[in-house]
Amino acid sequence: MSTRENGSEEEPVIRDNRKIDPETGQVREPKPAETTAQNDKEQAADRSSSSLASDLASIELATQLAERTADLQRLQAEYSNYRKRVERDRVAVKEQAVAGVLAELLPVLDDIGRARDHGELTGGFAKVSESLEAATGKLGLSTFGTKGEPFDPMVHEALMHSYSPEVTEPTCVEILQPGYRIGERVLRPARVAVAEPEEPAADDN
Q1: For residues 144 and 172, what is the distance between their CA atoms, to the nearest angstrom?
Q2: pLDDT in tens, 48-96
Q3: Tally of CB atoms within 10 A around 140
Q4: Residue in 169, 172, 157, 174 with CA at minimum distance from that of residue 198
Q5: Which of 13, 80, 129, 133 has the CB geometry, 3.0–4.6 Å to 112, for a possible disulfide?
Q6: Residue among 136, 153, 164, 135 at smallest CA distance from 190
Q7: What is the pTM of this model?
Q8: Is 133 exposed, middle or buried (0-12, 13-18, 19+ CB in 10 A)?
Q9: For residue 58, what is the enclosing H or E element?
Q10: Do 3 and 10 form a contact (C-beta atoms < 8 A)?
């Protein structure tokens, strides 16, 4: 009995890995294991390419977002500055308009003051003058200039000048016309008579 017959040895397994069939000359279809490996490599390459594309897209989106954010912040700052500038201009125009109207009323207020000083402010005229003074006060008009206060060329206009032993510095000794202001803005300086300390006596020698 031969060795092959009694099963003591197995027949060798021969695998033909040639990609071209020698008998037909046609390209053989890859075996399932080879196909799977090739597919895995292709999928890995696809995943790598997709990941790279996704990263590039994320970077581009982040860049665009930063640019749009910077544009929005710049526009917001410009709009805020524009609103502040418009508000300042509006307030300035309003103050200028009010000052222009009140400046035209100053001679009327001077006449009312003189009438009051002479005791002529009576009857209905007194009511009208009170209403006018109240209205101008609501618009921010106020008077200044008091007898005995130090002379300030920024708010006083000296119409008369003298010397007096009763003062130690240039002093308003008479208010000829009161001054008017709106807030810190002087519409008209107070017109005053100013006295200075007496001149030092000249040396006899």
Answers
A1: 12
A2: 777 777 888 888 888 889 999 999 999 999 999 999 999 999 988 988 8
A3: 14
A4: 169
A5: 129
A6: 153
A7: 0.56
A8: middle
A9: helix 32-117
A10: no
